[in-house]
Amino acid sequence: MKRSFFSLVWVIVIGQFALLSVHAEQSSGRLLATSGITQLEGSGGGGITPWAVISGHSLADSTSLSVSHTKVDVKDFGLRVDAISASYDNRIELSAAQHTFSLKGTAINLRQDIFGIKYRLAGDLIYTTMPQLALGIQHKSLIDGDVAQAVGARDNQKGTDIYIAASKLHLGALAGYHVLWNATLRGTKANQMGLLGFGGDSNSDYQWMPEFSLATVIHPQVAIGAEYRSKPDNLNAFKEDPYQDIFVAWFPSKQVNITLAYADLGSIAGSDSQRGLYASLTAYLR
Amino acid sequence: MLRNIFMFVAISFSACYVQADTLYENLGGQAGIANIVDGFLEEISYDREIYPFFAKSNIKRVRSKLEEQFCHLSSGPCVYTGDDMKSVHTGMNIDEAHFNRVVELLQTAMTKADIDFPTQNKLLQKLAPMRADMLHR
């Protein structure tokens, strides 16, 4: 508890620092709170699922750059995500993220690198009747693969997720408040996002897993919502559950987002009911 | 305690239903809309990026057509007598960034005019479909 409180304070301190240090002029990019946030694997999205939204506020011929830091603190595990993302033209997004996953009370640390690319195929989040559609890839390299091998993963080194996402914001749709939804279909073999390897003794084929987010913008700077991400269940040894969360995302300016969530990661490596706090900070550098 | 909360929620909800004003009324009617449009044009006049688009406009006419348009779109008792959006914006080469900036200026003007967030959003919702006729002309 003390540790998660410290993380939270740290995230807020860094947020204040980012606010002070980034003195970009009021940009004319996309509207506040439509940049989305940084999801667990470094892509622009909600908190746990990638959206069709391209990270940052980039528009025609402009680039956007962001860095983020996320901590998830559940009953028996901690996850730290450091990520960087660049986007161009509101069209293409590149991201790199590193996971550091730890089992509390032990020295076990699992690290994984994730490189992401996302391409907006069609549509505009707000202004077209059709949703914004994007195609994305997350390529994952597990640095510490021993645990994955021990739990029965087919591949303890590399895996690639591919997803298609649709996002739509309905202006003022709920008694004057914007409603945003996203639906993502992810083809994946990953066990616990890849931290426990890819494929397993129960199944080692790609499976298409749906992910959903629903949010509403309750204040010009604040969005609240809920998410659900289904996952494969490839390992005989351990049952794998969907991830779920409810979140509050605060956009004090176009340069900063702070998101807090209550996450339920289900059963991880045999330990059930992994619930706890998720805190994330994204600084938009340009 | 629980009953009090229930009562409170029930009353709050019924309050929502009673307040079935039109968007026009929530914007403050003719006077409110005139105030918003004034503020909007003021924000534009201070904006280095957007002002050039209006530099050669007849501001008096822009003001009265915007008032008509906002009134008409919010179901007020007005008819829009201005030109269609396509011809108004032809030759301006407005891009997404310009468009978003203007939306922000309108939001600022509405906030300064004490228009609440849901009402602001409802007006934006009415204006949004025009974007296709305004961009890249």
Kindly summarize this structure in a few lines.
The complex is a heterodimer of chains A (286) and B (137). Chain A has 2 helices and 16 strands.
Q: What value does the average pLDDT of chain A take?
A: 89
User: What would the principal axes of the Cα set say about the shape of chain A?
Assistant: globular
Total beta-strand segments of chain B: 0
Distance between the termini of chain B: 60 Å
Low-confidence stretches of chain B: none
Biggest interface and residues each: A-B, 20 and 24 residues
Q: Roughly what percent helix of chain B?
A: 55-70%
The helicity of chain A comes to: under 10%
Radius of gyration of chain A, Cα only, in angstroms? Answer: 18 Å
User: Structural class of the helices, strands and pairings of chain A?
Assistant: mainly beta
Estimated share of beta-strand residues of chain A:
over 45%
Low-confidence segments of chain A = 13-28
Quick one: biggest sheet of chain B?
none
Count all strands of chain A and give the number. 16
- Strand sequence of the main sheet of chain A, in spatial order? 3-4-5-6-7-9-10-12-13-14-15-16
Name the helix and strand elements of chain A from N-terminus to C-terminus, one letter apiece: HEEEEEEEHEEEEEEEEE
Strand content bin of chain B:
under 5%
